[in-house]
């Protein structure tokens, strides 16, 4: 059972979406799907290196043009012009093989290059 704590660290996105922290400190979206970062992305660069086929397997956490950054959260512009949320400068992604809320199948995937995000 996934328990999501409600706390001040909750960040609102577009369309009623939010990022929240689970009881064990992992960041998830409102739908309780786990969020990941990629070692190929350089923190603070404002860029995602996961595009094309990579973004099919690791869909970015997209936000709309009305979303704003807050604290450790920022917004980057992707190569396709869409906006993506980042945490501590690292773009945030879902994993396509996480089918149910709370799954963490992408942690340490592809030779340890993908990681769940902990606060």
UniProtKB/TrEMBL annotation:
Pfam families for this protein: Lipoprotein_15
Gene Ontology biological-process entries: alkane catabolic process
Domain of life: Bacteria
Protein name (record): Lipoprotein
